[in-house]
Amino acid sequence: MSEQETDTQPQDIQESLEILNRVPRLGGPIGRLANGLDRLLLWLAVIALVGLSLTVLLQVASRLFLPITLSWTEELTRYLFIYMVALGAGVVQHRNRHVNVELFHGWLGFRGRAAYLTLISAITLVFTVMVLPNAWQFAQIGAFQTSPTLRIPMLYIFLSSVVLFGALLLYSLIGLAEGIIAIARGERIDTARQEAL
User: Fold this and answer.
1) What backbone torsions phi and psi does residue 26 show, to the nearest 5 degrees?
2) CA–CA separation, 55 and 104 (whole Å)
């Protein structure tokens, strides 16, 4: 096998896994706003991940080296994990990185991929519109409770469900717009994008 063939194999595999990402993103001010929101949510999710890791390390260190264990570390770890998932879910949806079974994506043409993403975004939109009011009611229950060890009002913890479904709602609207625009404009964008690469 030549060196050129081995260099192209990982690229071919990556392109085959990113078939759904070939539908172009929104441009203009809305596209820049979506990209800025992506970066903000990812930074917040990374901060939650780093905080989670440091809290777990502190918990392990306290069990090994201190005569007492810090009981609040387990609770904080749980809350940071919840927020990490809530903050990252919308970005993962926007970048088409959710776990899925790609049985037929490679067979779809450009408009087929755009229609598929439009359908997924529409289903997600309907689901989040149905769930979001209940998530808000659930969060309001936490206004009368505090966490056992940290004494944080549970409203802030339960708001993670509102953040999760709010982000999914916003990104499903963006995905719906991207899919509809791609269907309307057709293969010309896909060809121009491939020539630019």
Assistant:
1) -65, 145
2) 43
User: Which of 125, 42, 47 has the alpha carbon at shortest distance from 88?
Assistant: 42
28-65 and 154-185 are packed helices; what angle lies between their axes, rounded to 10 degrees?
140
Residues 6+ apart with CB under 8 A from 16: 106
Instruction: Give the span between the Cα atoms of 153 and 134, in whole angstroms.
Output: 19
Could you tell me which residues come within 8 angstroms of residue 132 by beta carbon, excluding any fewer than 6 positions away? 162, 165, 166, 169
R_g of the chain computed on alpha carbons: 21
List, for residues 117-176, the tens digit of each pLDDT value: 899 899 999 999 999 999 999 999 988 899 999 999 999 999 999 999 999 999 999 999
Q: Report domain extents, the chain.
A: 28-100+107-196
pTM: 0.79
The residue among 180, 173, 158, 86 whose CA lies nearest residue 126 is 173
Is the distance from CB of 80 to CB of 54 less than 8 angstroms? no
Dist. CA 149–CA 72, nearest whole Å: 5
